[in-house]
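Task: encode each sequence below as structure tokens.

Item 1
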Amino acid sequence: MNILVTGAAGQLGSYLLDELSCEHNVRGIDLKSPKVEAHSDMISLIDIRDSEKVMRECEWADVIIHAAAQVSVEKSIEDPLLDAEINIIGTLNMLRSSFITGVDLFVYISSAAVYGDPKYLPVDEAHPTNPKSPYGISKLAGEEYVRSFGECHDLDYFIIRPFNFYSPRADPRSPYSGVITKFVQRIKAGEPIVIEGDGEQTRDFIHAIDVAYMIKLAIDSPVRNLVLNCGSGRGTSINELAEVLASICGDVEVMRAKSREGDIRHSVADISLARDFLGFEPRISLYEGLKAFFENGA
């Protein structure tokens, strides 16, 4: 298959190139140049809002994996218009081009942020959606457009809702990087980590390699038109995360700060559907992923 990955220079996109290129023809587009040297010839610098260029890329593809997005909750609150332009208009542009060029499968990378504060745990795909931030709203709008193109234009799709994925390929320079990236960066610099609130808020952490692996399983499976959570199925509090990091690298100094606006209190995925339909099981534990992060950046 010919597979086009949007957001291919990002942490998830780069692992998708690794995961899929062994068995498929893979190309990527992104606004940024790739950090992985081996990906230099695989990625074209294209904005997903550029209709003409996107259409040309889609003409080649059998499968689109749409991972490009504005991914920061904080940024979406600061600039909701930009968030909507990228996450809604950009997604619509990819969907329209996919339909016109005859793409066989559209894989939309959504987010657990569409759920908002859970009414129960673990969160399954039938859980009501009630996003708290403009980011969650824009990702949910993207999901609805994907479903609409599926129903109106017979475009096969998957909607994947990753929970908190991490990897060494996340940009440590970004002020909007995830909590694990921030913690690792500060520990390596000999600085205290900053825990916001009481630290008892939970997240379902999963390595980006495992997210890419699940997406590969979806593409290679005979099933279509599903919404699937992607997580570890285990909740970890931020305090527990600090303890795991301390067990790997010794004493970790902790500072406390106030909670962030728009943040969700608890988040744990029910991954039963991914297990049942795809045979998915995460392969990298949080301890193993963090240990490799510190030891060799893998």
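Item 2
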Amino acid sequence: MTRRFKLAAAAIAAILATAPACQAQNAAPAAATQDAAFQQLDSSMHALVDQGRLPGVITYVSKGGKALHYDIYGKSDLTTGAPLKADTIFRIYSQTKPVTGVALMMLYEEGKWGLDDPITKFLPELANLTVFKSVGPDGKMVTEPAKRPATMRELMSHQAGFAYGLQVDNPVDKAYRDSGLLGSPTPEAFLKTLAAIPLMGQPGEQWKYSVAVDLQGLIVERLSGKKLGAFMQERIFSPLGMVDTGFWVPAEKQGRLASLYLINPADKKVVPAQGFMVLDVSKPPAVESGGGGLVSTVADYARFSQMLLNGGELGGKRLLKAQTVELMRENHLTAASLAKQPLGPGVGFGLDFATVMDPAKAGTPVGKGSYSWGGAAGTWFWIDPANDLFVLGMVQVLGRPDSDPRLDRLSAAGVYPAIKAP
């Protein structure tokens, strides 16, 4: 799979039980299914659970609109021994980003914005930004004016110049952390704080994973006149039947929320997560984060994935035009950005998705044009139009180190031989 930039590692270095049987337009099966062809996939995932490196894992494979494989293994909570279940709710962190991208592209189809529009058309608070150049003798950042505002295309492809607070030794990232940007109490406070921090580079000159999708969420709110969650509920979740996806978990569902873990560097086993990056979803958030705030289930995200694989439609409900989905999964990086991006050879970036331009160079069995992203707690998915396939995985472990097996790669290694098996 793609060399997805790992948010958690850089920062801190389900199918419904009552779902109907699998149908071509309903990506979710009613119960877990195993197939001998997928033994490699199951064995590799189960081994990580048995070794204490994952509390539990769900994998789901759909091809041609039909569920080929669905496996649940391990625990939702290691302390209580509660098992992982079909309706377990997961914090999906940055796997929120594709959902926000779809929301914004709905407004694109309505003519409310264009890819070459400056972001200041919708976020005037971000006019007259500065750009980091160096650190002066006094230890302060030396800056220069931004040559122009970033465009919407650059915002959606992480070329706008913003950062995320991830790099420990970078002064711009440090300013993100020190300012408490990601804990801003209101959208207005978020924008005010962000405007005071220099960009990492001039707009359009480099790929830099960033708060860009949080800004996209604010643009959705301003263009629609609705809170991001309300817009998503009305335009995405309700039409697709995503009944357990949102920015918080109501009291009656909190017993289904998976516990969150992180890796103990000493023995690479999971321990309960505390403090930094532990997303509190027990109540409505002050700011609904388009970049990382959603919770979801395998069933819900499978429906979202199938909608995209179908070219923007599921069960007779069309969310996007097929050409809009194509636009999202095309590479939008400039040659300069492509040469310096950290995603790996053969990989580009579309509108809120990583996209495989050359599978051979990327060292992956996925088809050309496959697109993907994942979340800080280890969730992953990819959509492979060339093989009419999508794969989805759910775990809840922050900060899995680069030395650990990449779950997307492990699953790709198990999926493609299986789908080609006689």
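Check on item 2: The CA atoms of residues 48 and 54 lie 6 Å apart. Confidence is low (pLDDT under 50) at residues 1-26.
End of task.
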